[in-house]
Write a structure and sequence with these properties.
The chain is of the alpha/beta class. The chain has a single domain, classed as Rossmann fold (3-Layer(aba) Sandwich). It has 6 helices and 10 strands, in the order E-E-E-H-H-E-H-E-E-H-E-H-E-H-E-E. The protein is globular. Helix 4 links the parallel strand 6 and strand 7. A 6-stranded mixed sheet has the order 5-4-6-7-10-9, sandwiched between helices. A 4-stranded antiparallel sheet has the order 1-2-3-8, with no helix packed on it. It binds zinc ion (ZN).
């Protein structure tokens, strides 16, 4: 199969316990589940609707505030922000709006379907725990690039995959039925090169911040 990130030929890997098929690309270091394991719309809705995250959960709010402090506040140049994949309870949007005065637009494939967000340009695009669910990430990046202002940032949270196949197969993150693609820092470096983005920050674990260069 051709890698859905870089287009190179990927290697087939069979999970030793579940026999599920994965594809690994050596060129950009991403793993993808075989299409036969991609969740249906109904499965996605079912799983996402059970995510019980809310403003009332202090741990969850602290987790998001930590993300905001690491991945948004040090780098943003303006306050127009798109939260891409806001989920059933848009907690991050609420915090950004009310605690940090961002002007927030939201989009979610299931819960915020209105595509009004396409009519604006943004200083920040945030995407937390969403990219691992997306089967066509390159199209999404392409769209983001058209919406992002010069010097704008894309702040992403998705857990980076471990560095060996053995660890990958034992990793809890692949057991979520709705997770389909798994990135590493090297995958994000490849994406940055492809789109002429700069990597502004990474915690080498789950956060990556891209910046759109100002045109010369
Ligand atoms: Zn690749």
């Amino acid at each position: 199969m051709q890698c859905i990130i870089c287009g190179e030929e990927s290697t087939e890997l069979i999970h030793p316990k579940t026999n599920n098929l994965f594809h690994y690309c050596q060129n950009c270091d991403c793993y993808v589940k075989d299409e036969s394991m991609f969740p249906s719309n109904e499965t996605e809705l079912d799983v996402y609707s059970k995510h019980q995250n809310s403003l009332g959960q202090k741990d969850y709010v602290d987790y998001l505030v930590d993300f905001i402090h690491k991945a948004i506040l040090p780098y943003h140049r303006g306050y127009k922000l798109l939260e891409f994949g806001s989920g059933p309870t848009p907690v991050l949007s609420h915090i950004l709006k009310h605690r940090y005065q961002f002007e927030v637009e939201k989009f979610d494939k299931h819960f915020e379907k209105d595509k009004q967000y396409l009519e604006h340009c943004y200083d920040v695009i945030s995407c937390t725990e969403v990219l691992e669910h997306i089967a066509n990430p390159m199209e999404i990046f392409k769209e983001w690039l058209t919406l992002l202002k010069e010097n704008g940032i894309i702040s992403i949270m998705t857990l980076f995959h471990p560095s060996s196949n053995q660890e990958f197969f034992d990793w809890w993150y692949i057991r979520d039925r709705t997770h389909v693609i798994f990135f590493s820092e090297r995958t994000f470096e490849w994406i940055a090169d492809k789109f002429g983005l700069e990597i502004e920050f990474t915690d080498h674990l789950r956060i990556i911040v891209f910046k759109k260069r100002k045109k010369d």
